[in-house]
Amino acid sequence: MVSTTRGTLSRAAAEKAEGKKPVTEEGSGSRKSGSAVMKSKDYAEIFDQMSFVGTRYPDLTAMAELGISQDCHYLFEEMQLARLMMNPLPAYKKETIEFLSTLRVNFYEPDEIVPEDGRETEPGTPQAELQAFWAMIGVGEYMSSTAKSTHIRNPVLRYVHKALAHTIYARRDVTGVTEKELFFLNEGMKKVIHTLPDGTEMVGDRSGNSVATYLLKSFLSYREYALSLNKVHKASSGQLSCGGLITPILMNCGITLEKPVDPQAINIQYLRKSTYLRGQPISGRHNYQFAYRQFNFGLASFFLPNQPLTYITVGENIDFEPPIDTILEQGQEEEEYDYPGAADVEESSGDEENLMDYKTGEFHFKNHEIKGRKSAAKTALESINTDITIFYMILLYNYYVFKRFLQDSLPLEVVFLYLWDLKSL
C-alpha cells in the first residue's frame, strides 16, 4: 500500500500512477474466491439463480403529471444520461448473463495502443463538495449507510435519484442514496448552483471521465454482487434488472434476440407504492411526501404539480422549504407531523423485499488535479460531446468479438478506447 494525503492507494493504483501499467478492471476470465477459482461459467451459474426483471425507466406521463418533466430532462442531459433514461428497452436474460459473466474492460488512453500511464477511472468530485451538496438537498450529514431517498426533499431531485437507482445502478432495494448516485445528482446541478450554502464552490467531477466509464464499472460490479450472495448461499435472493441497458449493445451487434422481458416504469402507481406519493390524486393534484424542516424533518405533504415551488433553477426550491400555508392548505394539522425522525422510516422500494441488499463497492471520492500537460483523453473529451452514445459506438467497434462469444461461447473482451476521431468507427 502506498500512503497519500487521502490515506492509501492499492498497489495497482500506485503502479498506474507511476506509469507501470494500464487500468484494467477486474472481471475477465477468472477470480479467486477462497480456495476456488471463479470462472465466467461460475458467475453465469450464480446469475442464473437470480430473479431477472425488466429495467425500470423514468415515465413521461408521470413526470408531466407531477410538473417535473422539464427539470428531470435537464438533469438527465447534464448527467449525459438522457438517451439512456428516455429510451426504455426490453431485457434479455440469456444474453445479459453471458455479457455480465464475461465482460472485461481495459481503460486506455486514446493515443496509446500499448498504454503506459493508464487513466483515472474514479470520479474526481471533492468529498467536501458532496457533503455540502447533500446538506442542501437532504437531511443531516451524508453517510451512505443512513442516507435515504426520503431525505431528498425536492421532488425533481428525488425522482431523478430513483431513475439512477433503477438504471445505471439498478438494484432491488432503492431506498438508500449511494455515493455514486449523489455524485450524479451533483453533476446534474453544478451549472445551477455555483456556490453551496456553506461557501463551498461547486465544480463537479474533475477527472474528465466519460459517463460511459462509470456505466462500465457498474456492469463490472455485478460480479462482486454475485460473489457476496453466493458466499452466504443466497443467490436466489438476488435480482438482475440492468438488462435494458445492455440491450442496445446486443442490437448494435446484430445479435438475434428472443424472449424479451418488458421494461418497467417509474409511474404514478409505482410512486404511490414507494411512498413518494400518498393516496389518490385530488382534483388532478398528487400528494407528495417529503421531510419538512419546520416539522423537524418529519414527513409533510405537498400538492404536485406546483412548478413555481419545484423548479430547480430557483435556489430556494433546491433546498425545498415551501411556505407553511402550502402544507396546511391540505387540511393537515402541523402537530400530526411534528416529530423527529419520521423521514428516517424505511421507504418502500416499490419492489419485493430483498433478503440481501445489492451493494456494489462504493467509489472513494478524492481531489483530482492534472499536473503538467493535459492528458490526451481529457483533451479529446473536451472536443466532443461525451454522451453515453460513445459507449455504444465503441462497443459496436468490437462487435465481431461479441458475436464470436455468443456463437462460440468464447470469452468476451471489450476494450474501451477514447478515440480522437469517432469517424474511424
Automatic annotation (TrEMBL):
Its domain of life reads Eukaryota
Q: Where are the stretches annotated Disordered?
A: 1-36
- InterPro entries associated with the record: ATHILA_Orf1_C
Give start and end of each Arabidopsis retrotransposon Orf1 C-terminal domain: 37-111, 118-370
Basic and acidic residues bias: start-end ranges: 13-24
This chain belongs to which protein, by name? Arabidopsis retrotransposon Orf1 C-terminal domain-containing protein
